[in-house]
Design goal:
The complex is a heterodimer of chains A (250) and B (216).
Chain A: E1 5-12, E2 21-28, H1 35-44, E3 72-75, E4 78-81, E5 94-97, E6 104-106, E7 109-110, H2 113-121, H3 142-152, H4 159-162, E8 167-168, E9 171-172, H5 176-187, H6 195-201, H7 217-220, H8 227-247
Parallel strand pairs in A: 1-5
Antiparallel strand pairs in A: 1-2, 3-4, 3-5, 6-7, 8-9
Chain B: H1 10-37, H2 44-54, H3 60-85, H4 96-124, H5 132-138, H6 142-169, H7 176-206
Classes of the chains: A alpha+beta (250), B mainly alpha (216).
């Protein structure tokens, strides 16, 4: 019996300044394959459909269980994780492209350090160390923990930035993921001690006011994070902070 | 974050003012404007009396500039700047709220053109005096009627959807449930304004007075 096969089309680019080429691969179907397996199959035998020898496709992947965020790419035009994109569920031929909102490195690899820089810029961490032991922090109410947990599931994959009309080369908008992290850290009793710094950072160019409520982010999030709720909540926090500091002349 | 971007909060303040000016005074004025024009559905005398009162408010030019012209110009021009910073993608991500994002921009542009023309013909052209007969005369022209129907619908949509945006962007409607409710509230305002506007335009066109029953 002949093996069942399917086609994968991949947008490839050796370097950011080189021209784009599309390659088609015909892969042997096995049940429960995901897109990462497809890319591994190609790496094993990098011959295109027409038999021309090519090179293994560059891509980022790590955990293979949708917790690291590394394998975000456009699969049939949709920003999602390659590890949870099952071949059985995808329309064929499967079309793979790199995310478009981040600088391209090679093939399906993009440089998402913008998100890391923006997390730093918005103080998205909780300082627990001093030059001496600063002791235990305040206790966190279970109700707050329950609100915070879904936000803590963010994997910084960048899908929410990819689909946002306000994230592009013309606008430095930080995107929903970062705003949601600001909400998470402001919610934490120790993190709240630095909430003013985070809210101030979100008033600068690229901050919260750049959100124009297209609400694509929440639909693209693989972790089901209530991003539009985070955006509205942080919008309110920034506004209250702005009005208070204006009235006090700070 | 590009290193060259200025570390200033001016953008935040301007964005917030752009958003606020759409609700107050512009949105509030749209509702009031449809309200006062609805007197055209009562009777010619009532319409002329109400419009006469509005046209004789003290410090009129100053009031119009402060309440209407400056906020309108700021809201429109800064709104176009905001538009220019976005890159709509509703064709590749055809979700409803994404289409609303696109429509909000195009109805804003339509409203800007319509309001400019409307001010030119009804405010400056008539030197600030509008009477029932003059408007009814304009409304015999079918192109005027079409322009008004499109203009009023665009303005009403922009206000209704804008109220939803406002509720989300000012942290008033936070949870999905609250945002859903805000969307319905905005839709009700948008549909209400559209219907009122259409009826007023048709009232002028057909010299129709459906609310004239109470006049003794």
């Amino acid at each position: 019996m002949a093996d069942k096969t399917f086609i994968v089309r991949i947008k490839r680019q050796q370097r950011p300044d080189e021209s784009v080429r599309w390659e088609e691969y015909e892969l042997r179907y096995r049940p429960h394959m995901n897109v990462i397996i497809c890319l591994r199959d190609i790496a094993e035998k990098p011959f295109t459909r027409s038999g021309v020898e090519s090179t293994p496709v560059s891509y980022d992947a790590n955990c293979l269980e949708e917790v690291c965020g590394a394998c975000a790419m456009l699969i049939n035009g949709t920003a999602r994780q390659a590890c949870t994109a099952l071949v059985d569920d995808l329309e064929k031929p499967i079309r793979l492209e790199p995310l478009t909102k981040f600088p391209l490195v090679r093939d399906l690899v993009v440089d998402r350090s913008k998100m890391f820089e923006d997390l730093k810029r918005t103080h998205c961490w909780i300082p627990i160390d001093g030059t001496y032991d600063i002791g235990e922090g305040p206790r966190m109410a279970p109700s707050v923990q329950e609100k915070g947990y879904p936000l803590s599931r963010c994997i910084t994959c960048g899908n929410c930035l990819e689909v946002c009309p306000k994230v592009n080369q013309r606008d430095p908008f930080v995107g929903a993921a970062i705003v949601s992290q600001v909400r998470l850290f402001n919610m934490h009793p120790t993190g709240a001690m630095h909430s003013a710094e985070r809210l101030e950072a979100l008033m600068l160019p690229g901050g919260i006011a750049d959100c124009d409520n297209a609400q694509n982010c929440v639909k693209a999030c693989p972790k089901g994070i209530p991003l539009t709720e985070s955006l509205a909540a942080v919008n309110g926090q920034v506004l209250v902070h702005a009005v208070k500091s204006w009235l006090r002349g700070e | 974050m590009p290193a060259a971007a200025p570390e200033s909060k001016t953008g935040y303040i301007l964005d917030k003012l752009q958003s606020l000016s759409g609700v107050v005074p512009i949105g509030a004025y749209l509702v009031d404007h449809l309200w006062s024009n609805s007197y055209a559905l009562v009777s010619i005398e009532k319409y002329n009396q109400v419009s006469g009162e509005l046209q004789t408010v003290p410090w009129r030019i100053g009031v119009e500039a402060a309440v209407l012209w400056i906020p309108l110009l700021f809201h429109s021009l800064y709104g176009m700047y905001i538009w220019s910073r976005g890159k709509s993608n509703a064709l590749s991500h055809p979700w409803m709220s994404n289409w609303m994002y696109v429509l909000q921009r195009w109805t804003g542009l339509l409203a800007f053109v319509f309001i400019g023309w409307h001010l030119y013909t009804e405010r400056f052209g008539g030197h600030g005096v509008t009477r029932y007969a003059g408007v009814a005369q304009d409304m015999t022209n079918p192109w005027y009627v079409i322009a008004y129907l499109v203009g009023v619908t665009a303005c009403s949509f922009h206000l209704g959807n804008g109220l939803w945006n406002f509720a989300c962007k000012w942290g008033i409607a936070i949870t999905p449930k609250a945002q859903h409710a805000a969307a319905w509230f905005g839709a009700a305002v948008g549909v209400g304004c559209t219907l009122a506007g259409i009826v007023v335009v048709l009232g002028f066109h057909y010299a129709w007075f459906p609310l004239g029953g109470y006049v003794q």
